[in-house]
Write a structure and sequence with these properties.
The complex is a heterodimer. In chain A, 14% of the residues lie in helices and 24% in strands. Chain A is of the alpha+beta class. In chain A, strand 1 and strand 2 form a beta hairpin. In chain A, strands 1, 2, 3, 4 and 5 form a five-stranded antiparallel beta sheet that branches. Chain B is an alpha/beta fold. Chain B is built from nine helices and nine strands. In chain B, strand 8 and strand 9 form a beta hairpin. Chain B is globular, with a radius of gyration of 18 Å. In chain B, 45% of the residues are buried. The N terminus of chain B is likely disordered. Classes of the chains: A alpha+beta, B alpha/beta. Chains A and B meet through helix 2 and strand 4 of A and helix 5 and strand 5 of B.
Chain lengths: 71, 263
């Protein structure tokens, strides 16, 4: 989906202050920001939450399940 | 005309209420999402028509009681279209500029957030506001993050209200303020009969004409009747750790503001 819009990830950035207080909604554990993929990764939950158009989507049913290599 | 007189199965166990229909708890979230997806663009117009503009007065009273101060960090849940967030920034700004003044808008619905962010751009609001998609029952924020938590016309749509209240307490700092604005229960004798006719006869038709979604507004009316009464909500807030609860009725109880503190 991101392939079609190469400029999208840089168009809107998530406020670093917001990133500081965001946690995984399931585990309440920390999230790692993957700028390249525009994802917030919860290692504990094994989920990557998407950031679309600068809006982090912290919903389990919108998240990508990490594969074995990523964990 | 409506099915609200017909007997229904008891809600319990894995079921919950969707308006007056009893549905599986797991399905409610998706059903509520569909309702708001379908009405997002006309949501504010609908609110104006439904309440004859009175919702603006209610929101103004809500912000007045919150008394935003410079440097306050607010979490506004279910505030997708930005109505509360913009009023908050405006009110806090009038009392003094502070770069720490901040509102995080968290809504489960993508369409409502889009409407809000576009409105922010139109209003020229650049800083002090962030948009997050998340669930009131599983908030994606650290413990002790906010000075205040607001939820306006949102708590009614949450599947598990008690869980949402516990999450509110968790993300509030000690000494933080919880505030809820919601349709409530009429406390003025005589007004209740008028309000019944209005809500069951007029509102769904307005919804059909304006938002082209009668079911959405039928749901709205029924969900209002399901919502806990004023004192009941105060008790449930206390059970969740939100204390010193107080209520102010608006328009004879058609809506009410609840306020409490994380001590």
């Amino acid at each position: 989906m991101n392939d079609a819009a190469p400029s999208a990830p840089t168009a809107r950035l998530v406020d670093p202050k917001l990133l500081e207080i965001l946690v995984c909604p399931l585990t309440k554990g920390p999230l790692t920001y993957d700028a390249a993929r525009q994802e917030l990764v919860s290692a504990k939950a094994g989920l990557a939450y998407p950031i679309r158009d600068g809006i982090p989507i912290l919903l389990e049913d919108e998240a990508r399940r990490l594969d074995d290599e990523e964990i | 005309m409506t099915d609200h007189d017909t007997p229904e199965p008891e809600a319990g166990g894995d079921t919950t209420h969707f308006g007056f229909r009893t549905v599986r708890a797991a399905d409610k979230k998706g059903m509520v999402r569909e309702v708001f997806d379908s009405v997002a663009e006309r949501y504010d117009l609908m609110n104006d028509l439904m309440s004859a503009g009175v919702h603006r007065v209610w929101k103004a009273r809500f912000i007045e009681w919150l008394a935003p101060r410079p440097g306050m960090r607010l979490l506004d849940v279910a505030g997708g279209t930005g109505d509360i967030a913009f009023r908050f920034l405006d009110a806090a700004g009038k009392r003094g500029a502070d770069p720490e003044t901040h509102v995080t808008v968290c809504d489960i619905n993508e369409e409502m957030l889009k409407v809000g962010r576009n409105r922010a751009v139109d209003k020229g609001i650049l800083g002090g506001i962030e948009w997050v998609r998340g669930d009131a029952e599983a908030l994606p924020f650290e413990d002790n993050s906010f000075d205040a938590y607001t939820i306006a016309f949102g708590l009614r749509n949450v599947t598990d209200i008690d869980q949402a209240l516990r999450e509110a307490r968790r993300v509030l700092k000690p000494g933080g303020r919880f505030m809820c604005l919601e349709f409530s229960h009429v406390v003025v004798p005589g007004l209740d009969a008028v309000y019944d006719v209005y809500s069951f006869q007029v509102l769904p038709r307005l919804g059909q004409v304006v938002a082209r979604n009668r079911d959405a507004y039928q749901y709205l009316v029924e969900s209002i009747r399901r919502f806990p009464k004023q004192q009941d909500l105060i008790d449930r807030m206390a059970d969740a750790g939100l204390h010193q609860g107080k209520v102010r009725n608006l328009s004879g109880g058609i809506a009410a503001i609840h306020s409490a503190w994380r001590i």
